[in-house]
Amino acid sequence: MCPEITVTVVDVNESRIKAWNSDTLPIYEPGLKEVVESCRGRNLFFSTDIDSAIKDADLVFISVNTPTKTYGMGKGRAADLKFIEACARRIVEVSDGYKIVTEKSTVPVRAAESIRRIFDANTKPSLNLQVLSNPEFLAEGTAVRDLKEPDRVLIGGDETPEGQRAIRALCAVYEHWVPKERIITTNTWSSELSKLAANAFLAQRISSINSISALCEATGADVEEVAKAIGMDQRIGNKFLKASVGFGGSCFQKDVLNLVYLCEALNLPEVASYWQQVIDMNEYQRRRFACRIIDCLFNTVTGKKIALLGFSFKKDTGDTRESSSIYISKYLMDEGAKLFIYDPKVLKEQIIHDLSQPNISEDNPERVSELVTVTSDPYEACQSAHALVICTEWDMFKELDYEKIYKKMLKPAFIFDGRRVLDHLHPDLQNIGFQIETIGKKVTATRIPYAPTAVCPRISATEPPTKKAKV
After folding, report:
1. Are the C-beta atoms of 424 and 343 separated by less than 8 Å?
2. Residue in 87, 216, 251, 263 annotated catalytic
3. What are phi and psi of 184, to 5 degrees?
4. Which residue among 87, 252, 315, 435 has its CA within the 20 to 30 Å range from the CA of 139?
5. In what order do the strands lie in the sheet with 127-133?
6. 285-307 residue pLDDT tens
7. Distance, CA of 406 to CA of 435 (rounded, Å)
8. Is 251 labelled a binding residue?
9. Is 311 annotated for ligand binding?
């Protein structure tokens, strides 16, 4: 798209950079391998020589992680900006001349001001650093397409002549492939807040439809039909109205909690409470799904084998951060279930690592080795299982041989579809013999009614039974 621009990606992690320079990239993303292989060594380079890359650059993107704080003030909600600060100090230390420094990471409002203060406190006579905000709006699984065909590019900067000059320079880069009308320029603070607000709105949509899914299950409505009906309203639209076991990933929960903390810090408790409900509903949906599994399996899963298909937070990625699969696994492990987990892209080591975290393993990592088996084959995971649980919407799960799976499972054989990927197969699955439970729909035809062999006598609180009950 712009072969005349040289891009150098730097990181302190030598093994990660080594992987980027190899045939096996450290992450899975559709189309990314082809892009890297076509550009690497020409105008795309990966290096651990951070100082040289900064010195040679005209434009520096800060793209480090901004995780939720796990300590001190704002623990569990505020963004931890220690990596942003470290980058700012490194940049000002080794830079000379004119450079544009751009926030690419998701940051709280006025983070650019903190970067500017670090620059100003350590400036040199020959140094001129301009700070811009240019948040990314890529979605994992479609990141390459989102980069090539973005809905919009947002650039925020100072409302000064030098700030506007920096904005124009960054616009010129994007104009190589993005139409000018899709490039939005604004002040820095609006740009920073827009990223948080965008993720909060998307998470809100998911929690909203998930709340309706609970109502659908209680009333006999179908959340897919409800979503279609409301999504055809042009004021609402049909995006992000897919009910599921809840949202995951590195962004949504982190950014909503960051927004909640920001509102609390600015003495806006009602606004903070509103956005906190998005997180609360997501947690409720996960617990509710796990409870439904336990309830359908005759109110106990202790010692029962359950096949869990899908561990990444969504399809077409190997990313497991805040995946609903982790929490579904936790709730089932809490009840003593034996989990056999399969995912086409997530490594065994990653699954074990995620489930061994203190908040998931209840400070008892030994139980993971006792209760969790990671398999490389979905059919192996289903062998002698009481239930099959779909937690990720991988396309391959639509193509499995369910007759073969049914023969391998204990009876009654349950399918819990947490992503609605098997809707089109319900009649066939029912004919095979599966008992189907799915998000946002009460599939009553698949329930096995409890039919005792003897009629239990009615026992009134006011009248004694006419015949002594036999137990």
Report:
1. no
2. 251
3. -105, 130
4. 87
5. 59-62, 97-103, 127-133, 153-157, 183-187
6. 999 999 999 999 999 999 999 99
7. 10
8. yes
9. no
Q: Over the chain, what is the mean pLDDT? A: 93
| C-alpha neighbours within 13 Å on the C-beta side of residue 452 | 5
Query: Does 199 appear as a known binding residue?
Result: yes
Q: How confident is the model at residue 425 (pLDDT cuts 50, 70, 90)?
A: very high
Question: What does the alpha-carbon distance between residue 215 and residue 433 come to, in Å, rounded to a whole number?
Answer: 27
Is 94 known to sit in a ligand binding site? no
> pLDDT confidence of 383, banded at 50, 70, 90?
very high
Tokens standing for residue 218: 């209680």
- Give the span between the Cα atoms of 294 and 444, in whole angstroms: 17
What is this structure's pTM? 0.90
408 falls in which pLDDT band (50, 70, 90)? very high
DSSP characters for 92-141?
HHH--EEEEEEE-S---TTHHHHHHHHHHHT--TTEEEEEEE------TT
387 is in an annotated binding site: no
Residue recorded with tokens 């045939």: 23
CA angle 348, 354, 355 (to 5 degrees): 90
Full DSSP string of 388-441: EEE-S--GGGGSS-HHHHHHHS-SS-EEEESS--SGGGHHHHHHHT-EEEETTB
**Is 220 known as a binding-site position?**
no
258 annotated ligand-binding residue: no
Structure tokens at 363: 């400070």
Which two three-digit tokens encode residue 212?
């309706």
For residue 98, give both structure tokens.
Answer: 């004119």
- Give the model's confidence band at 443: pLDDT under 50 very low, under 70 low, under 90 confident, else very high: low
Question: How do beta strands 44-47 and 59-62 pair?
Answer: unpaired
In this predicted model, what pLDDT tens digit does every residue of 244-279 receive, in sequence order?
999 999 999 999 999 999 999 999 999 999 999 999
- Beta-bridged to residue 44, according to DSSP, are 7, 40
Cis peptide before 412 (omega within 30 of 0): yes
Q: How far is CA 462 from CA 376, 458, 465, in A?
A: 61, 12, 10
153 in a labelled binding site: no
Please indicate whether residue 251 is annotated as part of the active site.
Answer: yes
Mean pLDDT of 92-120: 95
Check whether 204 is labelled as a binding-site residue.
Answer: no
Could you give the CA distance from residue 279 to residue 204 in angstroms, rounded to a whole number? 9
Widest CA span in the chain: 102
For residues 345 and 316, what is the distance between their CA atoms, to the nearest angstrom?
Answer: 8
Q: What digits encode the pLDDT tens for the residues 328-342?
A: 999 999 999 999 999
